[in-house]
Each structure stands twice: as structure tokens, then as C-alpha cells.
Amino acid sequence: MTVRFSAVKSPASFKRAAAWALPYWTRGEAGRETPQDLFRVLYFGWLAAFTLKVLGSAWDVSWHFKWLRDDLAPPHLLNSAGTAIVVALTIIHGYTGYGVDKIALRLIQWGTGTFLVAVPLDLINHRVNGLDITSWSPSHILLYVGTFFMIAGVIRGWYLGARQGRERVVVLGAFFAFFLENMHFPEQHQEYGILSLGAWDNGATYAEPILLQFAADQMGRPIDRTMMAGFTLPVPDYLYPVYAVVGVLTVLVVARAMVGRFGAATLVAGSYVLFRTLIWPLLTFTGFPPSAVPFFMVVAGLLVDLAFLVRVPVVRAVLGAAGVTAIAYGALVAQNAIMGPVYGAITGQEGLSGAPPLATPSAVWAGLGLLVAWLAIEWMAGRRRQRPIEALPRPVIAPAAPLA
Question: Membrane-spanning residues where (predicted)?
């Protein structure tokens, strides 16, 4: 008997679910034989947890550009619901050993632990320093790092243990979309900030007066444009494009390499951009500040997919580095026919919905950074291909256990 989430509605259903799950609650080492039904339940649980966390985090950025911070704000509570599921799943994996190998388990445990440590540190930071104006603060970065390792462990566990087929590919792509969201999350400060600063220049404000006054008092300034610039864009202009190219778009390269199908990078990037596009009206129509949406990522994903058609690794890396850098800066438009529509997409985004400052001179460093990251990925993928398949630890998927 298979217990589905939709069936768990009544006390009797809960009893059946408990009767199904209880026999699996036994101590075991990571990598033990995992029943197929249990494996899917665990990883669909991860999908539910990450969905709650993403919904909460997306609301959180907009909330903090409007209201003074509150520990019990609705976005925090929504994110905390997802975190509670994460903790439960981490305990289940760690105690039973089901659904993960040792490396995946360690990544999940260290990631979850880092995140849980970062939460009280962030609360202390706000108590000591008042308003935390930037999403790039040390305590926030620690939250991203914890989530980074957490999702990396989940991706590894699913990649090694899921059966071949469409579901394996789709869920793997979904996990990479969550991974991309976490990697790009701090850059939303600039995406919200550039439009909030533009609103100020046009004689309007999105933030409530209490938030503006609190920020001004913390900076020791009156509420003027200098204060608004420090509140909305507190980091150097080069950070957004360089981070987007070296950090965020490296995720697309890894996603394309692991999924192994043309279009994987485009779909992962497109899924994230679609999510940001859908929540944009939901937030703005309810009175929250708008943000610039990173539409350029869709074209970036397409260029990554095109780059993987080139069979020579070094040429593939150079093509990818040049192409993705052009997406962020539009600096290489004349050098490649593909760059024409890319430049048009960036120009259209700047004209229609706005984009954070690009700091064009840093394009060289962004391109070199992605090139190094891409070559490192190629090197690691080459080493993995040289290892015998039987040397790869992977959880074994067994037939579903019958319900007594």
C-alpha cells in the first residue's frame, strides 16, 4: 500500500500513515537499502520544505523594504515552517540512514546545523546593531552558506538514489532551481533597492516612515537621498554583476552537467525567473515594494546549454565565460552573433523594469572568475567519469514494503 500526501486528511489516515512509517524507524548507517516509497516520500518532503522556505524568503525581502524588522513577521514564520520540516528530515536521514550516502548526509547535517546556528546569531546581530541594512551581512551570509550545503546534500542524495526516468530529471531540476534561488538571494537587495531609490528620485517612497526614520537615525543622517542610497544600495556596484556571473551562473553550469540534457540550464533559470515574475504582482498589488526581475538569467541559461554542445572542454569553458559575461554587461555584443539578442534583452530589461548598476569595467574579472569555475567543474567531472561506477556509494532502492 502506498500512502500519498493527499490521503492524509483524517485521524484514520494519520494512523495508516504512522503504521506505514513506523517499521522504517530503525537505526541504520547512511547508504542502507531504501524502499522506493520511502525514498520518494523523503525527497518530496524536501520539495515541500524548500517551497515553504522560498515563499517565505521571497516575501521577506519585500517586507524588509517596507516595514521595520520583526522577529515574528509572517515571512519569518513561513520560512520557519519550512525549516521545521528540514530539521525533521535531517533527523530522519541521520537516524535511519535511509535515502542518503555518507557524503550527502554530512552535507545535509552540516548545512542544517550551520543554518540553525546562524538564526540566533542573526537575532543577536539585530539586537546589538539595530537595523541590518544589507542582505550581505555576515549573519545573513551564514544563513545562505548553511542552505547551500543543505541543498547540495539533497541534490546528491536524489542524484545517486533516484531511479532513471522523467521524475528523476524533473525533481533534480527543481532542486537546482531552489539552489539557484538561494545563491541569488542576497542580490535581491540590489534588485529591490534600485527601484526603491528610483521611486525616491520620483518623489515617492515604498518604505514606511518608521523604517526610514530608523535607518536615518542609525546612519546619523537626515532622511535624504544619501541616506536612501545607503539604505537601498549599500554595496559596491560591481558586486551584483560579478557575483551573478561567477557565483549564480556557475549553478547553471553544474545543473546542466548533472542533469545531462540540453535545455536543463535554461529550464532551471527560467523556472526561477518565472517564480519571481509570478510573485511580483502578488507583492506589488498588496502594497509591497517592487523589484527588478533578473530576466537575463534565461538567456544566460540558454547560452550555457549552447556552450555544452561544444565537445572540447576548454573551448566550452571560454564560450560559457564570454557568453554569460556578455549577458550581465553587454560588452561582447559585436563579437558573437548570439550576443545580439542578449544585448537586446538586457537593454529591454533596463528600459522596462530596471536593473541594478552593472559597473562595466569589472566584466573582465567576472568572465575570468566564471572561466576558472567552469574549468574546475570540467576537471571534477572528468575525474568522476574515470572512477568505476561500482566505486560510487549510492543508496539502494528496494521494493516498497507491504503494509501488515
Answer: 41-65, 77-96, 103-121, 141-162, 169-185, 238-255, 262-280, 292-310, 317-338, 358-377
